[in-house]
Write a structure and sequence with these properties.
With 174 residues, this protein is mainly alpha-helical. The protein is built from 6 helices and 2 strands. A two-stranded parallel ribbon has the order 1-2. The two termini are 33 Å apart.
């Protein structure tokens, strides 16, 4: 998909606040185009109502797969408001991390929580391990609840993971 053109499609910002920090009254949860949730709903409708041989089908199917993956990444569903980032941390993009002692914190691309989380599986698993897990998951059938879950359910689950796992370590942004 043409991701740079549709940069606001990939996320929504459910606000999380660190203790003692208030969420700004003008906090924008979704972009004016509806963000990830709005686009998933819109694209599902386009796919449902366009002919199977329409040139729109492969384009929007690729986008749907991508956006569904995005909302399963916890930092695509929240923005944490803190003392250092009272307007939100842009899904962890403003939360600087130091994964190892020798990771430089200066330079044009500071290591941030969002990038760290995006790449965590790549750092922990080999391609063969990922392929093995994919085959194992393919053999198990999803439950009826899983196949019928609404996009808001996925977003709720991801936001909960952000609260309980991703941001568990620190109250500050470093």
């Amino acid at each position: 998909p043409d991701m740079r053109v549709h940069s606001t499609w990939h996320y929504l910002n459910r606000p999380l606040a660190t203790p003692g920090v208030s969420i700004p009254p003008d906090f924008q949860i979704v972009a004016s185009d509806g963000g990830a949730l709005g686009k998933i709903v819109e694209i599902e409708d386009i796919l449902r109502h366009s002919p199977p041989d329409s040139p729109r089908q492969p384009y929007y199917l690729a986008w749907l797969v991508h956006l569904v993956g995005d909302v399963h990444q916890p930092l695509h569903t929240v923005a944490r408001c803190s003392k250092n980032n009272p307007g939100g941390d842009q899904g962890g993009n403003l939360f600087i991390v130091r994964p190892t002692a020798d990771t430089p914190l200066d330079g044009p691309r500071k290591p941030n929580l969002h990038a760290f989380w995006d790449n965590a599986a790549l750092d922990e698993f080999s391609l063969s391990a990922v392929q093995s897990l994919a085959h194992e998951l393919a053999r198990s059938r999803p439950t009826q609840r899983q196949t019928l879950a609404a996009p808001t359910t996925w977003i709720d689950e991801s936001a909960q993971l952000a609260r309980d796992v991703v941001y568990r370590a620190g109250l500050d942004d470093t």
